[in-house]
Amino acid sequence: MNQRTRIKICGVAREADVDAAVDAGADAVGFVFHPESPRCLTVERAAELADALPPYVTPVGLFVNADPEDIDAALDAIPTLLLQFHGDESPDDCALFGRPYLRAARMTPELDLLDFARRFSEAQGLLLDAHVEGFGGGGKAFDWSLVPSGFPAESRRRLVLSGGLHAANVCEGILRVRPWAVDVSSGVESSRGVKDVAAIRRFCDAVREADARIAASIA
Fold first, then answer.
1. Which domain holds residue 122?
2. What is the pLDDT of residues 100-150, one digit of tens each?
3. Least crowded by CB within 10 Å, which of 70, 123, 133, 195?
C-alpha cells in the first residue's frame, strides 16, 4: 500500500489560513500557545478557528514549557486538540494529560534520536525540527542525514519532518527521510505570522509530487 504523507500547517491565526489549509488538503492545523511567538493565540481565538475545521482535520496545540493549567484550559476549549510539546518537557510531563501528543526533537549531531524515541515511546509522533532559538518557527532546516539510516521502519510511522520546509525543498525531504507527515509554518507565509494561500497550495502540491515519486519507484 502506498503511503500518503500527511500535512500539518502550523501557526494559523486567521479564518483565511484555516480555509486555505483545508482547501489544499491539509490533515492538521496548528495553533501556537507559546507567548513569545508572533503566532501566539489566546485559547478563545484558537477555539473559534477550531470550530471552522471539518471532520478529519485535526487541531494541534503547540506548547513550550507551559503550565498544566494552561494546557487544561486549551483542552477544555478544544476537546479534539492534539497536544504538541516543543520545550523541555519530560515523558512524565507529556503523559500528564492522558491525551495523544507529539513531542518535538530539536535535531543536533549530539541528539541520539533512537534513545529519544525510546524515552518518548508513548508519543503518537516525533516532530523533527531544527535547533533554533525560540523553539521552532525559525524557517531553518536541519541536516536530514541526522535521521539515522538504521531507524526502524515501523518507527518511521511516528516521524513528522519539520524545520525550514517550503515548496522547493519538501519533496527532497520526504524522499530522503520518508516521514509519516510534514509540518510547515514560516515556509508558507507572506510575512511573519501571515499565511499565504498560494504558498500553502504549492507546498501541498509538492508533497503529493513526492508521494507520486515514491509510488512510482516501488511500482
1. 6-218
2. 999 999 999 999 999 999 999 999 999 999 876 654 555 678 999 999 877
3. 133
Contact status, residue 85 vs residue 104, Cβ threshold 8 Å: yes
- Neighbour tally for 219: CB within 10 Å: 6
What cell does 97 get?
494529560
Question: What does pTM read for this prediction?
Answer: 0.93
Residue 132 burial by Cβ neighbours in a 10 Å radius (0-12, 13-18, 19+): middle
Residue 95 resides in a domain: yes
Residue type, 88: D
Interacting residues of 176 by C-beta distance below 8 A, sequence separation 6+: 144
Residues annotated as catalytic are 10, 129
Residues β-bridged to residue 128: 105, 161
The CATH number for 66's domain is 3.20.20.70
Question: What Rg, from alpha-carbon coordinates, does the chain have?
Answer: 16
Asked whether the beta carbons of 181 and 7 are under 8 A apart, the reply is yes
In the chain, the DSSP E strands lie at 6-10, 28-32, 58-63, 82-85, 101-107, 125-130, 159-161, 181-184, 189-191, 194-195
